[in-house]
């Protein structure tokens, strides 16, 4: 075995024993199926908490889309709420002015999110690092200001409400207990998770991961770096738009907080908490954080901040990221 | 013998620093050209301009007849240019085989395919494994590149460049940092490069240079000091002055 | 005409407040590459300390303010030595997460100690009135803020350019490895810079108490503005931060006066334009 050299560290000798002969991706449907099973189980076990379940599924979808940008493409952003909120408002306005069919509204939300991401990404991706980060904040705040100004369309500070959401597939009306809403949100989450898995495991996803880890290397291989990143950014925007649309439809209201910096920051916190880059971490982080927020919400909102503040600091110091990573290496194969 | 790379009057400044002064040379198919010179002579800067990382202030770079001076790296790669980096430039967390496959997907124009999994391209998977086999890295196919020994990482650098099936290969100090004893596989890889490939290698190891190169270009302070066969260079008094400090 | 003058004065004052708070963050980011999203919490702490000392402890304003600044610096130094310095080597996202957590914690602590209401800092009679400049009268407070901001800028620039500490600072920013091998006490430089940044933030919180009301969510509410100033001005650049803060402060004030229903749109449009034009900072450090 080659011994250590000047620039790298000591070689890890028994790497052949630890890894299989060749890297293989797990089938794309496996993880989403687990999510479906767990989600359905949770809904079955806690039928009076379906509103919470729905919020968790929507949060998970939003953070999943953020993982594509931050974890896979390596683009730290604090403006992802812009695409979420745009999807939400698009779906709400569509339900109000055109037709109340939820799936059509979902498609509109996806399209709106994707288009905004495409347009803003075309500008944003010319920059990197801290500059890129701050520009994402700027774009999101600009979108927020425009939404605030366009009261006639968005309801301004009062929010967009008064739109009805038609029965799903023309048959399943949204009931007061929230069963249809929960099932709807879960189904969209599972579907989008599958799509995201396929994206990440494809040659395109591999290229984007390569760009994340070493942009210079990818450029030297002839990769059109900007184009690949823009495509991933747009795809993530579309998925976030779906989450926004779901939020609008299941809550029957859209507020300016769906475009807020606080939402972007919260999603980023959820993602880092669960671990970025693997998609599963996004889901875990979203679930854990939303559950914590919910259980602490009844208490004085400031005291909730004690809990979450302390937890975030502890998480970073004790670094469960290392624990997660160790766990993953034991359980799954690197793809 | 076809002219693959034609550099004419390349010139570049970094502020007040004149790093490339009117450099010209040519590469033909099958050439083994070594670019040598004292530290700071501007060798890597030159290679960076040829590969498209830096843009020259003046001069022309023709790749297989096409003027690529103002074009980006992607176009040059498509025309058959590939390079390695002096400081290992790999994606640290990706397994070795995936790293090679990345290059193969780009070469075949499949880098934008977003639906089928990377495992669903058996011909490319096999080619990647074959390339690893050639470099003796087959056993490390699933190892993240950051876990490899340094010498093995240099091998991956070279394998990546070759995966692109280039016509012109730029090697920036492939043996840099590799201890003498571990270099055998790298040397074997150098010896087994395709015959019609045009290779430009930057190296400091003179034994390697005289063993490998059919032509040597000496760069000093950004300008070409000498350009000729190894024997001519060995005897050139200007070269000896630049390296050894003896008067010309 | 009066409107333009008011915009200029209020905008300049607002810009100075932003500058004094942001300059510490700019230097911390530039020097230690440490993403400290709890920086605004120090501004909040400074403001709260001053408010407490003046109102509850009945201290003289001119004693309370320096005391509050020193207290904030002490808090910064303690946090740096105990916890934050272990994060310098960590990934940026980890730093983000930790410092956001710290902000949450400080927000909750502030609420627990002082309640959710806005804290006012009563000004001494000398500052509460107006100053007659001949062609206009100005609130004295605005004049103080502008003067203080300029003093901070001049003082910081002098320290960086002329003193030994400044030399150490610059060496540590440019080549920290070489600097430490030359015997420059990097740890001292880091801790002192961080404490100084916290102190300046605290001072800014006090200066800006009228424009940016002190309440527990302060720590996160104004974070974006401060980050914007740092980004547009360029990390590590004092002059850049000053220029960015003043320009953006005036634009934001102007838009509040002239186009209030557009919210902060012009602020962020200007910010995006400036950053796109000069991604490395206004004065390209």
Description of the molecule:
The complex is a heterotrimer of chains A (335), B (248) and C (285). Chain A has a domain at 28-260. Chain A has 15 helices and two strands. Chain A has helices at residues 15-18, 30-45, 50-72, 81-97, 102-124, 129-149, 151-154, 179-201, 203-213, 215-220, 225-251, 261-274, 280-297, 301-318, 320-331; strands spanning 160-161, 253-254. Chain A has a two-stranded antiparallel sheet. Chain B has 248 residues and is an alpha/beta fold. Chain B has a domain at 3-90 and 163-244: 3-Layer(aba) Sandwich (Rossmann fold). In chain B, the strands form two sheets. Chain B has a six-stranded mixed β-sheet with strand order 6-7-8-3-9-10, sandwiched between helices. Chain B has a four-stranded antiparallel β-sheet with strand order 2-1-4-5, covered by helices on one side. In chain B, strand 9 and strand 10 form a beta hairpin. In chain B, helix 3 (96-107) packs across helix 4 (122-134) and helix 3 packs parallel to helix 5. With 285 residues, chain C is mainly alpha-helical. Chain C has one domain: ABC transporter involved in vitamin B12 uptake, BtuC, CATH 1.10.3470. Chain C is 73% helix and 2% strand. Chain C is built from 13 helices and two strands, in the order H-H-H-H-H-E-E-H-H-H-H-H-H-H-H. Chain C has helices spanning 2-32, 39-56, 61-82, 92-114, 125-128, 140-162, 164-174, 176-181, 186-207, 218-221, 223-233, 238-258, 265-277, and strands at 130-132, 137-139. A two-stranded antiparallel sheet of chain C has the order 1-2. In chain C, strand 1 and strand 2 form a beta hairpin. The radius of gyration of chain C is 19 Å and the shape is globular. Chain C starts with a helix and ends in an 8-residue tail after the last helix. At the A-B interface, helix 8, helix 9, helix 10 and helix 11 of A face helix 2, helix 3 and helix 5 of B.
């Amino acid at each position: 075995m080659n011994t250590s050299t000047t620039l790298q560290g000591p070689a890890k000798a028994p790497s052949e024993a630890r890894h299989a002969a060749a890297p293989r991706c797990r089938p794309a449907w496996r993880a989403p199926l687990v999510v479906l099973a767990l989600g359905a189980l949770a809904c079955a076990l806690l039928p009076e908490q379906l509103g919470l379940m729905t919020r968790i599924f929507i949060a998970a979808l939003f953070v999943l889309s953020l993982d594509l940008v931050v974890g896979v493409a390596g683009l730290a952003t604090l403006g992802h709420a812009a695409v979420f909120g745009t999807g939400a408002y698009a779906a709400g306005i569509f339900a109000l002015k055109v037709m109340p069919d939820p799936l059509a509204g979902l498609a509109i939300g996806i399209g709106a999110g994707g288009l905004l991401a495409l347009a803003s990404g075309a500008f944003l991706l010319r920059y990197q690092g801290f500059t890129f980060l701050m520009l994402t904040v700027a774009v999101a705040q600009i979108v927020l200001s425009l939404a605030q100004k366009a009261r006639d369309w968005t309801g301004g500070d009062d929010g967009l409400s008064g739109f009805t959401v038609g029965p799903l597939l023309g048959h399943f009306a949204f009931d007061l207990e929230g069963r249809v809403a929960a099932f709807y949100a879960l189904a969209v989450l599972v579907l989008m998770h599958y799509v995201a898995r396929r994206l990440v495991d494809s040659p395109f996803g591999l290229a984007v991961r390569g760009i994340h880890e070493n942009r210079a290397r990818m450029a030297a291989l002839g990769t059109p770096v900007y184009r690949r990143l823009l495509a991933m950014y747009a795809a993530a925007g579309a998925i976030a738009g779906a989450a926004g649309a779901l939020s609008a439809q299941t809550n029957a209201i859209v507020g300016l907080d769906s475009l807020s910096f606080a939402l972007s920051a919260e999603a980023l916190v959820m993602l880092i908490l669960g671990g970025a880059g693997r998609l599963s971490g996004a889901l875990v982080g979203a679930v854990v954080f939303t559950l914590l927020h919910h259980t602490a919400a009844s208490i004085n909102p400031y005291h909730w901040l004690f809990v979450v503040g302390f937890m975030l600091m502890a998480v970073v110091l004790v670094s469960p990221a290392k624990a997660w990573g160790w766990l993953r290496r034991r359980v799954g194969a690197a793809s | 013998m076809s002219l693959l790379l034609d550099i004419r009057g390349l010139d570049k400044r970094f502020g007040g620093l004149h790093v490339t002064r009117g450099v010209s040379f040519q590469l033909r198919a099958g050439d083994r050209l070594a670019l040598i010179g004292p530290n700071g002579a501007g060798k890597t800067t030159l290679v960076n301009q040829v590969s498209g990382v830096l843009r020259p202030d003046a001069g022309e770079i023709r790749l297989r007849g096409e003027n690529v001076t103002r074009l980006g790296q992607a176009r040059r790669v498509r025309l058959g240019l590939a390079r390695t980096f002096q400081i290992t430039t790999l994606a640290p967390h990706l397994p070795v085989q995936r790293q090679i496959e990345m290059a193969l997907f780009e070469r075949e124009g499949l880098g934008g395919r977003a639906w089928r999994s990377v495992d669903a391209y058996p011909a490319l998977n096999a080619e990647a494994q074959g390339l690893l086999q050639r470099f003796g890295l087959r056993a490390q196919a699933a190892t993240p590149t950051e876990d490899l020994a340094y010498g093995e990482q240099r091998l991956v650098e070279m394998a990546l460049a070759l995966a692109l099936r280039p016509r012109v290969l730029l090697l920036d100090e492939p043996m840099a940092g590799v201890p003498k004893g571990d270099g055998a596989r790298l040397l074997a890889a150098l010896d087994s490069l395709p015959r019609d490939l045009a290779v430009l290698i930057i190296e400091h190891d003179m034994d390697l240079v005289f063993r490998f190169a059919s032509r040597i270009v000496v760069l000093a302070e950004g300008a070409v000091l000498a350009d000729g066969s190894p024997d001519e260079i060995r005897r050139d008094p200007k070269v000896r002055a630049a390296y050894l400090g003896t008067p010309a | 005409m009066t409107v333009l003058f008011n915009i200029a004065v209020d905008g300049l004052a607002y810009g100075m407040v932003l500058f004094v708070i942001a300059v510490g963050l700019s230097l911390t980011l530039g020097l230690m590459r440490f993403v400290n999203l709890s920086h605004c919490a120090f501004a909040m702490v400074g403001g709260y300390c001053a408010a407490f000392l003046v109102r509850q402890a009945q201290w003289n304003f001119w004693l309370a303010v320096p005391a509050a600044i020193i207290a904030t610096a002490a808090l910064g130094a303690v946090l740096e030595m105990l916890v934050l310095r272990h994060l310098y080597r960590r990934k940026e996202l980890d730093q983000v997460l930790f410092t956001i957590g710290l902000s949450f914690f400080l927000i909750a602590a502030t609420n627990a100690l002082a309640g959710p209401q806005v804290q006012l800092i009563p000004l001494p009679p000398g500052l509460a009135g107006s100053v007659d400049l001949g062609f206009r009268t100005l609130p004295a407070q605005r004049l103080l803020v502008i003067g203080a901001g300029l003093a901070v800028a001049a003082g910081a620039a002098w320290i960086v350019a002329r003193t030994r500490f400044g030399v150490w600072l610059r060496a540590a920013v440019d080549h920290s490895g070489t600097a430490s091998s030359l015997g420059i006490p990097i740890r001292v430089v880091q801790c002192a810079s961080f404490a100084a940044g916290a102190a300046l933030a605290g001072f800014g919180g006090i200066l800006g108490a009228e424009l940016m009301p002190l309440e527990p969510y302060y720590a996160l509410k104004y974070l974006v503005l401060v980050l914007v100033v740092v980004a547009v001005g360029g990390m590590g650049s004092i002059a850049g931060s000053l220029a960015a803060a003043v320009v953006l402060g005036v634009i934001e004030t102007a838009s509040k006066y002239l186009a209030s229903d557009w919210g902060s749109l012009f602020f962020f449009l200007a910010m995006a334009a400036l950053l796109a034009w000069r991604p490395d900072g206004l004065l390209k450090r």
